[in-house]
């Protein structure tokens, strides 16, 4: 009688122990996912590194990414040591890329795709999606309506520590392309493209100078992080709300 009760105790205890272990494992997984999400939402700027010949690389090397005219352009950093872009010709500073990762909310076209957003304005606070135009292969920014028909991810970072290189579709295929004016003449202004098909942007940028480059994440300073956190609070982290706050 005692022996049977003893084995009965063991038998009934096994599911309890297993359930506790599964619960701990699930909680650990949730904690890891939460930590990873928090890590992905750290805000960063994008700086350009180019390995071309010195006489060529200086045209883009060390510049930073800014947002204007629906595209990702390159701008020199402030000579005073400020790592943000210098003022433009009108004396008004262009808006620096200041972004983070978040899932793209479109299960039909882009299921489980990690997207990338950037502020386009801090006052009022506004966010836009970063995407590759599927026709031109230019990197652009826009709201969900503007971006959903294009390549919106998956965005990530390189496997090196601290994962400084930006990637799209698991590759650093970024190319700086010199702009041309309406007469087809080079302007000296550079914008970012993505060599999606690894063919040198064939048929997309003929007659324009191109430079393969690496976009490296530079974590925002504390005060910039604070400003960006205010954006997150105002948008409540809800992409539907964010979409209402961006350009239509």
Strand order of the largest sheet: 5-6-7-8
The tally of helices reads: 5
Number of domains: 1
Question: What share of residues is helical?
Answer: 25-40%
Head-to-tail CA distance between termini: 77 Å
Mean of residue pLDDT values? 80
What is the total tally of β strands?
Answer: 14
In N-to-C order, the SSE pattern is HEHEEEEEEEHEEEEEEHH
Task: Note poorly predicted spans.
Answer: 1-8, 233-248
What fraction of the residues are assigned to beta strands by DSSP? 25-35%
Secondary-structure class: alpha+beta
Shape summary:
elongated
Q: Tell me the Rg in angstroms.
A: 23 Å
Largest beta-sheet characterization: 4 strands, antiparallel
Signal peptide: 1-19
Protein name: Type II secretion system protein
Keywords: Signal
What does this 3D model show about the protein?
With 248 residues, the protein is α+β, with helices and mostly antiparallel strands. The chain has one domain. The protein has helices at residues 2-40, 54-57, 144-147, 222-235, 239-245, and strands spanning 44-49, 64-68, 71-75, 95-96, 99-103, 114-122, 125-132, 139-142, 155-157, 166-168, 174-180, 186-194, 210-212, 214-219. The strands form 5 sheets. The protein has a 4-stranded antiparallel sheet with strand order 5-6-7-8. A 3-stranded antiparallel sheet has the order 3-2-4, with no helix packed on it. The chain has a 3-stranded antiparallel sheet with strand order 12-11-13, with no helix packed on it. A hairpin with a 5-residue loop joins strand 11 (174-180) and strand 12 (186-194). Keywords: Signal.
């Amino acid at each position: 009688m005692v022996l049977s009760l003893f084995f009965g105790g063991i038998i009934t205890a096994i599911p309890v122990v297993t359930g506790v272990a599964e619960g701990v494992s699930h909680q650990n997984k949730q904690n890891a996912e939460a930590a990873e999400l928090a890590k992905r939402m750290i805000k960063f700027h994008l700086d350009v590194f180019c390995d071309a010949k010195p006489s060529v690389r200086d045209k883009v090397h060390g510049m930073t990414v800014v947002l204007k005219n629906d595209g990702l352009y390159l701008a020199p950093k402030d000579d005073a040591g400020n790592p943000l872009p210098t003022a433009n010709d009108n004396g008004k500073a262009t808006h620096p890329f200041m972004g983070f990762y978040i899932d793209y909310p479109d299960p039909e076209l882009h299921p489980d795709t990690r997207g990338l957003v950037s502020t386009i304005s801090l006052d009022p606070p506004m966010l836009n999606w970063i995407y590759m135009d599927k026709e031109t292969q230019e990197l652009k920014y826009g709201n969900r309506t503007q971006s959903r028909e294009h390549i919106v991810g998956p965005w990530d970072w390189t496997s090196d520590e601290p994962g400084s290189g930006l990637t799209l579709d698991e590759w650093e295929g970024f190319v700086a392309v010199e702009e041309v004016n309406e007469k087809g003449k080079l302007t000296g202004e550079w914008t970012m493209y993505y060599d999606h098909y690894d063919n040198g942007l064939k048929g997309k940028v003929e007659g324009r100078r191109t430079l393969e480059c690496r976009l490296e994440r530079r974590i925002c300073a504390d005060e910039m992080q604070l400003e960006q956190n205010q954006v997150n609070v105002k948008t409540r982290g809800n992409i539907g709300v964010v979409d209402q706050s961006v350009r239509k």
